[in-house]
Design brief:
The chain is α+β, with helices and mostly antiparallel strands. The chain is 14% helix and 22% strand. The radius of gyration is 15 Å and the shape is globular.
């Protein structure tokens, strides 16, 4: 039996929620799929795929948790003396 693929989201970009201690959000790009992106890489990567996108338009970029924020991330401390 062949598995049916779930429908793609209606938005060109979907920004997934984030977990603790991670500097990345999973971002879904239509036609490409999910990618982990850091805040500093987000706009450049989205514009690479969708050059004319309006990042502030909720019809084009959907934030799953509605926060439009990035996780506060700090590199792990080195336990060595």
């Amino acid at each position: 039996m062949e598995k049916k693929r779930p429908p793609e989201p209606e938005y060109p970009v979907v920004v997934g929620s984030f977990g603790e201690n991670s500097r990345y959000r999973l971002v879904w790009l239509r036609g490409i799929g999910w990618e982990p992106l850091a805040r500093e890489d987000f706009e450049a990567r989205v514009r690479e795929v969708f050059p004319d996108i309006d990042l502030d338009d909720p019809e084009q970029v959907h934030w799953v948790d509605g926060s439009e924020e990035w996780p506060a991330w700090h590199p792990p401390e080195n336990d060595e003396p």
